[in-house]
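Record type: monomer structure entry
Structure origin: computed from sequence
Chain ID: A
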Amino acid sequence: MIELPILILAFLVLLVFGVPIAFAILVPSLLYFVVNDLPLTAALSRMAGTLNSFTIMAVPFFVLAGQIMNRCGLTERLVGFSLALVGHFRGGLAQVNVMASLIFSGMSGSAVADAGGLGSVLIPAMEKDGYRRSFASALTAASCTIGPLVPPSIPMVIYGVIAEVSIGRLFLAGAFPGFLLAALMMVMLRFMPATATVPRYPRATLRQIGQRSSAGVLALLMPVIILGGIIFGIFTPTEAAAAATIYGIVVGILILRTMKLEGLRQALLEGMLISGGVLFIVAAAGVLAWIIAREGLLIDLVLIVEAWNLTPLQLLLIISLLLLIVGMVIEPLSILVVLTPLLHPLTMQLGIDPVHFGVVMVFNLMIGLVTPPMGLALYVVSDISRLPVERIMRDVLPFYLPMLAALLIVILFPELVLFLPNLVFG
């Protein structure tokens, strides 16, 4: 018999040596089947069964919709719209950075995509306005964590599929944390020394806001289509994702006319590559989840929690600390597919709402995106700004304050997170 700790150790060793996460999960899992004389066909069946879900088809559609909207030239238009809304505040383009991230999140559902799309436009513009390049890069990395909280959100879909939780409820539950984080960041920017000497822009007139609103309206219509369709029972989450993809094609080719067939082909190709990587990780994690269940690890964890006599709040704080640490070294989607089968039943045991826990889990993992050594968002903005991650990291440190403050509020006051989904779905 191969013991579960050995399997987990093999997984960690493979990660240290830079093996892709899907193979780091799959190789030890298949070894478990071989050593324990279990048929490998059972592992393949489990992988197929994990992906045999209508809901999980939403992932490739959301990825494709985000790719299409990114190629429509909406990024520059969104920056102009955000400038008209908040450019007159102290901090000018720094405030625009956060506002644009909030709006942009309604298109991509991915923090890394937000960092890449907005960073290529805003980092050079902020440097031209007098900001240090490292500060502009750090702010872009920090603000992109808003993206997967606000619908549509690919991590929320992955969590919802694994935990069998309503995607619509998760999408609505993420709205408050996303807006809260954006508001706290914008308030902090108002008082930061880095924003004291940079120019403010003139307050836009209603006419100017109206002239620049087309991009904002086109971007904001995507989450409206997704959430409205789900709430009113017109779409399932997967059908809503497909409708968002069709909307993106209509916007790019027929309305803005900024995307040709070659651009659509590139978006399809990029979307397939990203989706294939994500779904391969999910399939591999399905095998690991089966092994964990077979070894009875979940039962052991439940007994430990009962023995410690933890309250729901204590358990959420302990899990959050665990996720923050793990998020430093492992990519967020990988953590979701590996730990959700363990942590979700554990929180259910103490009566923690699965929608609330899903938001807490995703929020923790987004902070990991700006925490080294993994910190994918840091590497994206580092590549754009051509600065070493170490220099950007120094400027990221102050932004942990609004991120951790918002996370703590989300943990302490679940009723604020669940208000919208309970209001809409009952």
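Annotation 1: The mean pLDDT is 86.
Annotation 2: The chain is about 75% helix and 0% strand.
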